[in-house]
Amino acid sequence: xxxxRSSQVAxxxxxxxxxxxxxxxxxxxxxxxxSLGGHRLYPTEAITMLRxxxxxxRLGFTLDEVAQLLDAGVHRHGHPPTAxxxxxxxxxxxxxxxxxxxxxxxxxxxxxxxxxxxxxxxxCAGSSxxxxxxxxxxxxxxxxxxxx
Amino acid sequence: xxxxRSSQVAxxxxxxxxxxxxxxxxxxxxxxxxSLGGHRLYPTEAITMLRxxxxxxRLGFTLDEVAQLLDAGVHRHGHPPTAxxxxxxxxxxxxxxxxxxxxxxxxxxxxxxxxxxxxxxxxCAGSSxxxxxxxxxxxxxxxxxxxx
DNA sequence: TTGCATCCGGTACCCAGGTACAGGCTTACC
DNA sequence: GGTAAGCCTGTACCTGGGTACCGGATGCAA
Lengths: 148, 148
Prior knowledge:
Two copies of one chain form a homodimer. Chain A is mostly helical and 148 residues long. Chain A is 55% helix and 3% strand. The longest helix of chain A is centred in the C-terminal third of the chain and has 31 residues, at 85-115. Chain A is elongated, with a radius of gyration of 23 Å.
């Protein structure tokens, strides 16, 4: 009894042991009780918390945002309406939708380039018949943000 | 005459001067001639190259992939068919489409959570009526990859 | 009591794509 | 020739989300 070891919690949540301490440092996971020798002893709720963190992360929230969401759930008084899960989820949904739109533009550009049979970017950049919009293309979302 | 200064090239391409040297180190930009004192003197084609790089990056290619694309355009002999722009663009399109699908799942999950009026993740995780799929949600794409 | 697995804190490193700074040289213009 | 802006190399730092390694201490079973 007396609590779960870090490796047990990590395994149960499908997470690395190091990640537990990382989350603790980031303020996402409460500091658990310790054994006499200083080893962490987690309550079972810690596993739930990890699942919540992973779910929120999967929904597009950064760890900082997750920390704020968890804080907002605990404090819950006099915060602006954007601070709750509702407000934040609405903002995040808008973000995700914007991202989807951006990627759709990219996908369409790739499709027309394939259709046009482009096979050399440098040649394409010099030819006026290539459909890749070299001059305007840089105006979109941050480069590299959808590669992963 | 004799070439463009790095700041001129950078300004023309909408890029930081440091970035020019970074790209040179990464092998994306050919080493230009130098003045007697060692200053870089770029041909106007350098600006075109930068536009090409930015375009490819915007289309979802990493800098390593861009370097390979540029190499493939130059060497052009006996490479497998996946090595050309066509093959790589097809693969990248598939990647982008997968990403879009993933984000659509996320957007839909956010929408149902908003619809259901969820306002506390921890409470939601403990309640069976919350539509957020805490147990299966971690199975999707890498966490954090669409935040930006 | 021995032995091995696990855990501790602290620090350093990984990815990508840059950006910033320090200390010194070159170039351009008056 | 003076001065200011620009450029040089090299190295360190940034974000975000972890991961890896180290030397030493603990926990637990036989």
